[in-house]
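Pasting as-is:
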Amino acid sequence: MRVKIVLRFCSQPARLSCQDSVPYQVERRPHSLQSSDRFIDNHHNLIAGQKGASTLVLALFVVAILVTATVGLLFGHKLGYQRGFHSMQTETKQAIINSTEATKELKDLRISNKIATSEAATAKQELAISLANLKELRETQKSLTVENKQVAQLNELYTEVIADNGGMPLQIIGANIKPLPENAFEYGFDIGMLSEDGNAKRLTPTLTLLDDDDFVEVPLDPASYSIKGIVRIRGRFMMPSGFKPLQAKLTLRAGGQQKEQLYDWKLGDRVDNMPLSLLDLPEVDESPIEP
């Protein structure tokens, strides 16, 4: 701030007054200068204080920004580290699980491979055995076919010889009746006959069960046969409820000949190891009946 000092110049007549006034002005000048300097100093101090306060506020603002940025960086770094750590842990656990599953699958594949290899070896062995059995069966079948032809040829020869010698009369070669489950019975008869002319004849068998006062005729299926040599009569029947036969009579008619044979019911005695049901029974046995 500029301070103007104004000097008053007085005229001659008024020199005394001026002189008188000069000291007064001179006396007052130092006080005015001091006031001006004080005012200037206060003003400068005020400006400096304002500048210092502004600088302090700016410094505090900068410090606050730096602290906030540092805290944000630290928090972000910690949060990122935690997330990365948890993510790494999750990935590590998943990798361990995947590795365990892969190891288990590999182990299962090895076991499956061993089983498949063993099964393949077994199948190969079974195939070799089956082929060997098939070859043996073919050879056996071929041998049986040849043998059957030979037997048939021999039978033809015997038939011709027997026919030339008057034939073979009607006769029963073997007979059998055995019990079955559910009050059923199985019968079997081997019949032989050869006429003089060597031709087949019609055979009509009849099976009758007898007790002291009554009889029951068993229906045979089929009811008639063609006989030229040997015929095997096989079948099953149900015994009437409450009927207990004492004898069984077999009647045969063929080529003008008739044959009757009585059998005690001991043919129908029970056998051991009999099945519990008819459904468990095999087919009727066509094997020759042993005398």
